[in-house]
UniProtKB/TrEMBL annotation:
<protein>
    <submittedName>
        <fullName>NTP pyrophosphohydrolase</fullName>
    </submittedName>
</protein>
<dbReference type="Pfam" id="PF00293">
    <property type="entry name" value="NUDIX"/>
</dbReference>
<keyword id="KW-0378">Hydrolase</keyword>
<dbReference type="InterPro" id="IPR015797">
    <property type="entry name" value="NUDIX_hydrolase-like_dom_sf"/>
</dbReference>
<dbReference type="GO" id="GO:0006753">
    <property type="term" value="P:nucleoside phosphate metabolic process"/>
</dbReference>
<dbReference type="GO" id="GO:0019693">
    <property type="term" value="P:ribose phosphate metabolic process"/>
</dbReference>
<dbReference type="GO" id="GO:0016787">
    <property type="term" value="F:hydrolase activity"/>
</dbReference>
<dbReference type="InterPro" id="IPR000086">
    <property type="entry name" value="NUDIX_hydrolase_dom"/>
</dbReference>
<feature type="domain" description="Nudix hydrolase">
    <location>
        <begin position="36"/>
        <end position="166"/>
    </location>
</feature>
<dbReference type="GO" id="GO:0005829">
    <property type="term" value="C:cytosol"/>
</dbReference>
């Protein structure tokens, strides 16, 4: 374990906070740890009754390209219920609601420099509706064959980590149900 000696807030923004900590290592040496505090998030793997997956394509500014992803979003407030957040994000981004949700666990996206955790859900028994994306979200809903998306995750055509993790967990969860 590392012991925090001092903490400095380097940046405090709308989405995240950047800290610079001085730490005492197990071997007695001192070191610096810069890290990002994130409020947490959810991601949803929505699967239709005929074996399709609902995805969103959106431009991701930090990497300057569009990515094909499962619907996802951050918690709006500390302590927000993950399932309620998942329901909101699915509806906002795709217009769909689901009658059945299955928790698929969580992932740490980048534990080398961030505490971001994403809770993953499988959504089934979908009901279509009108989407309501956030003002700064410009996305296109895409409906694709689930097995084809699994192959895209394996081949590297889909590179978004939460999508790869969510799709693969959903794939094995659904294969176990048969």
């Amino acid at each position: 374990m590392e012991k925090t000696i001092t903490t400095e807030v380097v940046f405090n923004g709308m989405l995240l906070t950047v800290l610079r900590d001085e730490v005492l290592l197990e071997n007695g040496a001192m070191s610096i740890r810069e890290h990002v505090l994130h409020p947490g998030a959810v991601a949803v793997v929505p699967i239709t009754s005929d074996g399709k997956i609902i995805l969103v394509e959106q431009y991701r500014y930090p990497i300057k390209q569009k990515l094909l992803e499962i619907p996802a979003g951050k918690f709006d407030k500390p302590g927000e219920d993950a399932l309620e957040c998942a329901k909101r994000e699915l509806w906002e981004e795709t217009g769909y609601t689901a009658r059945k949700y299955t928790y698929l666990g969580y992932i740490y996206t980048t534990p080398g420099f961030s505490n971001e955790i994403i809770h993953l859900y499988l959504a089934q028994d979908l009901v279509p509706g009108d989407s309501n994306p956030d003002e700064d979200e410009i996305l296109e809903v895409r409906i694709e064959d689930f097995d084809a998306v699994v192959k895209k995750c394996i081949s590297g055509e889909i590179t978004d980590a939460k999508t790869v993790a969510g799709v693969m967990r959903a794939y094995f969860k659904l294969r176990g149900e048969k």
